[in-house]
Amino acid sequence: MRFKYFIIFIISFLFYRGVNIYAQTSNEYYHEEYLPSDSIFANYLKSRNIPIYNNNEIELLPNGRIKFESLFEAIRKAQKHIHLEYFNFRSDSIAKEIFTLLAEKAKEGVKVRAMFDDFGNLSNNRPLRKEHLKMLNDRGIEIIRFDPMKFPYINHAFSRDHQKIVIIDGKTGFTGGMNIADYYINGLPEIGPWRDMHICIEGPAVTGLQKAFLYVWNQETKQNIDGDTYFPYGKDSTYTPKQLGKQVAIVQRVPHKSPDAVRRAYIEAMDAAEHHIRIVTPYFTPTRSVRKAIYRALKRGIKVEIMLSEKCDISFTPDGGFYYANKFRKAGAHIYLYKGGFHHTKVMTVDDRFCTVGSTNLNSRSLKYDYEINAFILDLGTTYELDKIYNKDKADSERMTKEYYRKRGVWRNFVGWFAHLLTPVI
């Protein structure tokens, strides 16, 4: 009888031990395999050989006044070189002030290079003229037009340079959604205040911005500007033994070279989400692959919030954005319509863990045709600050409902339907 109980005890012990070993093994498996969304996204970046730069400082610049104050201060401190790349420099008070400052730095011996997109220049109501460019070059500012518009013009319609980049001495960099114009401070009469977002980066991630600038500059000028002086952190050194400071990846879309870089980064970020996604974009006609990523997130139960601007500087396109927004609303997304002016910000946050700020709109022009650049920031603090700004902006927004969309009227909603048919090109 004792032998029988002994056998039962041994079997029970082995079974219990086996269950615990299995449970422990399973827990270890899930501990090893389960990754938060920022780690999943970081693995994606590494798989695409997109450098993740450690030990950076990030400053959010949530409006035009703060952006230009920070930019002017950094320019004043420049000692070696200043590089600027914008979609356009509007010939107004801000441009005059920045060019005056750049000319002073050039006189001190600082090399100044500036580049703007010719289509972007011609599309604003106060473009730089030939006489402006001559005057600036005479004052020591090497300024060029990206892809000058020439007959038959249609040949130059796509692959425009929509990036916003400034690099100072290879150590301080700026990027985001703002060009050079005084309406970022003063707003415009027809749309009111202009809301936008820029960032200032100090640290090794500036290397990524410098590479991005010099690639386009050298391609356009046929120069070969390079060398250690432009890369004080080292051109290829990105990883440190210990992850210090804020981690940043610079993702650049270059037509014919990295055409899907920013689009895939947005999609992979959405696919990594576990809890929520918050998007702010001014022109919302997303490509099919991005739309599918948003629908996948909604089907997984992810809370998707999208903030659009009720007012816009471009007619027609926003109606197409409202059409898509209403489709996502029906699928469960929370759509907010900003009413405090024009929200030109291009931002996304994921799970309170990582975020992106850059020049990319969620439309076909940005995602499929133009040169674009975004900083993807793997940092809880920066993401928290962006979410805090987002939630504050919600107080100046109206939630899109079925009733709201109907009140827009049959004609406006028809225009939105028609505009969405042009998604592949707008």
Structure explained in plain terms:
The chain has 426 residues and is of the alpha/beta class. The chain has one domain: Endonuclease Chain A (Endonuclease, Chain A, 2-Layer Sandwich), CATH 3.30.870. Helices cover 43% and strands 21% of the residues. The chain contains 15 helices and 17 strands. The protein has helices spanning 2-33, 37-47, 64-76, 93-107, 118-123, 130-138, 183-186, 206-221, 261-272, 288-299, 317-330, 364-369, 380-394, 402-407, 410-420; strands spanning 53-61, 81-86, 111-117, 141-146, 165-168, 172-176, 194-195, 198-202, 246-253, 276-280, 303-309, 334-338, 342-343, 347-350, 354-358, 372-378, 397-399. It has a 15-stranded mixed β-sheet, sandwiched between helices. The protein has a two-stranded parallel sheet with strand order 7-13. Strand 11 (303-309), helix 11 and strand 12 (334-338) form a beta-alpha-beta unit. Helix 11 packs across helix 15. The longest helix has 32 residues, at 2-33. It is globular, with a radius of gyration of 25 Å.
The percent of residues in helical segments reads 40-55%
Query: What general form does the structure show?
Result: globular
Mean pLDDT: 90
- Identify the strand order in the major beta sheet: 4-3-2-5-6-8-1-9-16-15-14-10-11-12-17
Please indicate the count of domains. 1
Total number of beta strands: 17
CATH class bucket: Alpha Beta
**Tally of helical segments:** 15
Main sheet attributes: strand count, strand direction, barrel closure: 15 strands, mixed
> What is the third-level CATH name, the topology?
Endonuclease, Chain A
Q: Tell me the distance between the termini.
A: 85 Å
pLDDT < 50 stretches: 1-32
- The secondary-structure class comes to alpha/beta
The named CATH superfamily? Endonuclease Chain A
Strand % is 15-25%
